[in-house]
Amino acid sequence: MSGHCIFCKIIAKEIPANIVYEDDLVLAFHDIHPAAPIHVLVIPKEHVETVEDIPKGDHIVALMTERAVQIAKDLNLREGFRLVINNGDNGGQTVYHLHLHLLGGRFLTWPPG
Fold it and tell me: Are 18 and 27 in contact (CB under 8 A)?
């Protein structure tokens, strides 16, 4: 974990969050600045800054996706949802700890931005 990373502090329970899921590898919580009625962030507990920093052969994104799909079911997003990973400044990444956005609860337009 990185001592300066806000998501690492959430994992360590140093900063409160509205947690919706947690296991040994993944934590999921409601975004404090939601872009949709339901906006959950799914993060690995191990600090990985970007998608490009995932070690070759690591399956963390698949695991995060599996957990996000289950959370979407638990949150009753039957009409659909969107999963997004932003990477780097131009990709819209603002926190440099890998995270997957689960967005739903309304019709989501395209393109997003």
Answer: no
* Residue bearing tokens 């959430």: 10
State how far the Cα of 67 lies from the Cα of 21, in Å rounded to an integer.
8
User: How many other C-beta atoms lie within 10 A of the C-beta of residue 55?
Assistant: 8
Token pair for 30: 């409601």
pLDDT one digit per residue (tens) for the chain, 113 residues: 566 899 999 999 999 999 999 999 999 999 999 999 999 999 999 999 999 999 999 999 999 999 999 999 999 999 999 999 999 999 999 999 999 999 999 999 998 76
Show which residues are catalytic. Answer: 99
